Amino acid sequence: MRHTFFCIDGHTAGNPVRLVAGGAPLLRGASMIERRADFLARFDWIRTGLCFEPRGHDMMSGGFLYPPTRDDADCGILFIETSGCLPMCGHGTIGMATFALEHGLITPREPGTLRIEVPAGVIDIAYGEEGGRVRWVRIRNVPAYVAATGIAIDVPGFGPLSVDVSYGGNYYAIVEPQGAYTGLDDLGAARIVELSRTVRNLVRDAFEPVHPLDERICGVSHVLWADVPKSEGADGRNAVFYGERAIDRSPCGTGTSARLAHLVDQGKLQVGDRFVHESYIGSRFIGRVEESVDVGGVAGIIPSIEGSAIATGFNTVWIDREDRFWAGFSV
Length: 331
Ligand code: PYC
What we know:
CATH architecture of the largest domain: Roll
Number of domains: 2
Strand content: 35-45%
CATH class of the largest domain: Alpha Beta
CATH superfamily of the largest domain: Diaminopimelate Epimerase, Chain A, domain 1
Structural class: alpha+beta
Radius of gyration: 19 Å
CATH topology of the largest domain: Diaminopimelate Epimerase, Chain A, domain 1
Distance between the termini: 25 Å
Mean pLDDT: 98
Low-confidence stretches: none
Bound molecules: pyrrole-2-carboxylate
Oligomer: single chain
Shape: globular
């Protein structure tokens, strides 16, 4: 039996986005977080088949568009990635909104804006078009907040680190330069990946964040290594680790959101500030601290992230049950 998925492939700031425009399963659930649970219970083979080798790779990320479950939204998004079905994905939203608008898959009720339901909540999008292309997308994200500071870990072969945990749609362990961590270029990509797995495990052993408004959103999934900017006009740089081997090629939308909340918590940014975040490969998002909010009794912010995406082509992907690797593999 062969399942066919019509995809628009592309990237946001260098990180892959696979918008599955045809072949999405019908899901049960009264909200995107309920549909996410249903997808994970019954259809996770679609995620692994489309994201893992041989049809994907370590960084593969994307999602499906669904009709919204609420009257005030234009559509819903279910994210798929090598690491699972994220509550929210910034680079993925920028890419999927761009490709969907450019190919007429969503019709906004108000041109220039979209309201999208994601598992983590509801996000508002502003975008600019020119010459039939979407040139930029800005996401007013779900609230971000700092969940813990000063988690002490000792990384074998590296040394002690003090790590903070911040939420921007996913929970990030944030490592700032300190001790043996003297900057991204001193570590290099292979070492960042290797260390990140250990850092994530050690932080998970020490602290399990649970979202104050929705306990289904929990657990540290990503590690953000913060650094000073490398190029002119940027305010900060990062390498975001996800899955088992991925470094985000984009500055990571939810990572940037988590970092904005973190910098506000440290008194280094305030409402109204802009923060240009540079990725490991030098691509950029513009982050903004839009407003302060209460997140279930915890002080937080509404962050926004702005960036752009480009489609690289149509891709009809088969998951064929006669293929030994129909559900993908990861080594
Ligand atoms: O842009 O939010 C993001 C993201 C999450 C994982 C990879 N990118």
